[in-house]
Design brief:
It is built from 13 helices and eight strands. By secondary structure, it is an alpha+beta fold.
Amino acid sequence: MSQGFLVNADVDGLVESLFVVEDRFMDKETPNYIVSQKTEGDKQQILKYAFRDLADRLRPMGYFAEFRWIVGRYYVTLSPRPPENKRGSTRNIILFAVTVCTVLLDGYLRSDNPVLTQSLMEGTPVFLNALVFTLGIVIVFGVHEMGHKLASERRGIRASWPFFIPAPPGMGGTFGAVISQDEPPTNRDDLFDLGMSGPFFGFLASIVVGIAGIWLSFTVPISEVAKWAITYPEIRFQQIPLPIVLQIISDFVHPVPEGSVLVLHPLAFAAWVGFLVTFVNLIPSWQLDGGHVIRALFGRETHKIISITGIFLLMISGYVIMAVIIAFFLMREGTESMAPLDDISPTSLSRKLGLIGYAVLMGLSLIVLLQA
């Protein structure tokens, strides 16, 4: 093989140390190796972990490796690893600060409510409630994205710090947060972990915020709510559906006697938003976290089919606008879930069993917006 591409002489030897190299050739200045397993045993598993070892050791050497199955043979293809994006943190800090301000204003408008200020929390500064609401929202979204970042760094994948996205007050003050991953995952196991990590940690954070928020919430007789409707005609009283997990928390932390309703503290509403975000992100469509999970477990073609199912799930749950947005992106090329470097090795048994946890997490977070 031409040595022009192999700047580091150890690369060729590294491939040979992990695989039996049956042939090698250059394809448009790209090195390709036709390989087979080096030891006896389960071929798929041996090759899967040999490639993981290769990919992990090549990254710091400045190379990517791709594992493919073509006409009955296994190929390892090398390419230069793009240089690290030396992004600064200034933009992250500015977006975070702006988002804190918009969420704080949103929380202030929600808390500046005569039911809270004159009946339930008389004497409590509106700003304090807004601050607590903001803290809850930032924790939920921040922990969600840090789950993704930690999963990325655990596998040596370059990823940015979270970019918080501000939104107008009245819409929660934020559209959430995202991280930018500069590189594809090594295999389907890593893609599964990247997809599940954010919703899982965000779910746990929402539980913690939910317990505190429900404990601070109020049990009010229905007759009192009827009086408020007359006293405060400018306020729209509406009972919002709770996700199953928040209802369970309420049953244990703040049981509601018959003839009464639970009025959520602003912190409890932040947890409600957290579970809503968890459910939407777990929808098995497009580049949502659930889309990555399904792509990892079932592959590219099945992911496309299940993505359509996810759109219908959103619609029947009441998330019509979100369903339309995802449907729009699904019709565009190049917007599907990311492909791992090794897209032929199966996921591990633990990830396959993780599908049960995925379904449980989605079910516990489900908030059906359409009411019969």
